[in-house]
Amino acid sequence: MPPTDASAGTGPGSVPLHPGVARTWDIQGTGDQGAWDEGAGDTASFGDGEDTLDLRLPDEFLAQFAAPRLADGLDDLLDHIPTWGPTPTPVGMFQLVPVRLEHDLPLVRSWMNDPAVAPFWELAGSHNRTESHLRAQIDGDGRSTPCLGMLDGTPMSYWEIYRADLDPLARHYPARPHDTGIHLLIGDAADRGRGLGSALLRAVADLVLDRRPTCARVVAEPDLRNTPSVAAFLSAGFRFAAEVDLPGKRAALMIRDRVLRGLM
After folding, report:
1. What is the phi/psi pair of residue 160, to 5°?
2. Which site in 134, 155, 197, 236 is 20 to 30 Å from 92, CA atoms measured?
3. pTM of the model
């Protein structure tokens, strides 16, 4: 599971998208402060290391989406991320743009090889390693979409937007239909530790809720040890729901509820 970081080490927080140590896309170096209730209830531990993309969806379920996806080339499982468009944030105009492998691979690979990021995402190394991770999503069934985060037109972060209810994570918390997960990595060290993580997490969570009317909750699972990441999620309006044992890490299950978005 990849991390859920929102900073340099914003690697997969428990990104169930690629194998290896559970990653928590935690927001490292954001400089945000926060706390959580350590007495929150636990969920059952992951008994296996199954990767998100290894979880096969029933053929009859996928058949409902095959025709539309072939017709417009978009990912119906996530309500057409390419059409979501830009959204204003306190730090500038932001937009999620699906990764174009032939164009964006060098940039994403350079971020994954950052020593501050590598321990969380475990995608450092050869060109092929990052490419395989991206291609598995791009050529997959649409439950996960890798994106570049464009701030005022400049690519500065990497995101994975995924269907948490169709992910192995759903076995370890009371998932609801259309729960949507997010993983974040802020690419440049200069962009970390100054509050960008929290601002963009809030903006993207709200974007998901605005563009996916059937989604009632946005979820994430940063490593409990990554306190800056957990703090950034709290600052972004997520609440701490539980501790969850995932492959290679104990995660903080963070949830942003549609019904509470105006209060947090």
Report:
1. -125, 120
2. 134
3. 0.75
